[in-house]
Amino acid sequence: MPTFKIAVIPGDGVGVEVVAEGRKVLEAAARREKNLRLTFRSFGWGSAYYRKHGRMMPADALDTLRQFDAIYLGAVGDPGIPDHVTLHGLLFPIRRDFDQYVNLRPATLLPGVPTPLRDKAPGSIDMLVIRENTEGEYADVGGRLSRGGRAAVAIQANVFTWEGTERVIRFAFEAARKRRKHLTSVTKSNALAHSMVFWDEVFASVAAEYPDVRTRSMLVDAACMNFVRRPEDFDVVVASNLFGDILTDLSAAIVGGMGLAPAANLNPTRKYPSMFEPVHGSAPDIAGTGIVNPIAAILTGAMMLDFLGARRAAAHIQQAVRAVLAAGTARTPDLGGPSKTRQVTEAVLAAL
Ligand SMILES: NC(=O)c1ccc[n+]([C@@H]2O[C@H](COP(=O)([O-])OP(=O)(O)OC[C@H]3O[C@@H](n4cnc5c(N)ncnc54)[C@H](O)[C@@H]3O)[C@@H](O)[C@H]2O)c1
Asked: What is the pLDDT of residues 17-42, one digit of tens each?
């Protein structure tokens, strides 16, 4: 029987709440299968750990995590600690050091889910946004000149390597081949004449190997507009780290919001563990009130099972979530309902 070892990092705020719910659903889905065993080990890293130890996770955290098959993470972020400290102390080192170069963010409008867009039928929005996840604008290269006041200077470098750009674009082409065979590359080549023109060149060179996939390039400002105006025109979308980050808040918003948006940070070579976390953050405005929507984390758990090869269990979770959303009886306030977090989880467990 395949046994998968899952490292759990609940993190901060609602991260702790949604990961607990997601874990219940993962355990229930595994119990249904004859051939699947999941073991979990939880790590109390994050902002509380930072307050005690001056760092977000221990120095040997990556060595510890390396021994697991996957990492299931809630969110990090605390109103009392600068965001760049929490992100650079935990999320970014894991994504980078484990070479999780694909950030996969599906956005599908499911039956029963309200969208802020007018006249959009369920299924009409069905896109997969693939974000480069280890370099680009988030490469963490730069610094400040130490002159103070108005003479101060900050430099943040974007780093685009051929290899790093090519591999994520290739992943996007492969994904498009399994879907509607249409890939949109999002750039800003009119203004960023070095990095984005380079991206376009890499895109064209990979595209030559995939004549069966229709392609187009779109500037990021136009892409933002078209995510709202004509979202049904998108199938697979590939973008740099920054653009993908911004676009996926928008893609999440048009299919029901942060409470439903799952994500995966993949190391497709499987040399290192991949990490699965919902798109949303620690939501300090609702943390501890028992109303956070657990569905994003639950669907994130399904993405984890799918990547590990437990496809049937993953599909069962997705079907259960669809049934609960379509029935509309258990809904947290972000979807306009009165339900508590655990009532939504109970409904998903019952549907399983
Ligand atoms: N991957 C991560 O860990 C991650 C991602 C984004 C933001 N953050 C951090 O989280 C903190 C809060 O950031 P933010 O407020 O910009 O983004 P956020 O995603 O935490 O919240 C944005 C809004 O969406 C709502 N929301 C988010 N998830 C929800 C859910 N599951 N159910 C219902 N409502 C939900 C929140 O209540 C809030 O109004 C910051 O410290 C930020 O740095 C972390």
From this structure: 999 999 999 999 999 998 899 999 99
- The closest residue, in CA terms, to atom 16 on ligand 1 is 281
For residue 287, give the nearest of 84, 10, 91 by alpha carbon. 10
Q: Residue 22, Cβ neighbours under 10 Å: how many?
A: 30
CB 141, CB 157: distance < 8 Å = yes
Measure 266 CA to ligand 1 centroid, in angstroms.
Answer: 21
pTM of the full structure: 0.96
Question: Contact, 303 vs 72, CB < 8 A?
Answer: no
pLDDT tens, position by position, 50-71 = 999 999 999 999 999 999 999 9
**Residue 23 φ/ψ region, left for φ over 0, alpha for ψ in the -120 to 50 degree band, beta for the rest:** alpha
In angstroms, rounded to a whole number, what is the distance separating the alpha carbons of residues 267 and 88? Answer: 19
Q: Is 91 in the pocket of ligand 1 (CB under 6 A)?
A: yes
Token pair of 323, please?
């049934």
Q: What is the pLDDT of residue 150?
A: 86
52: which residues sit within 8 A by CB, 6+ positions away?
Answer: none
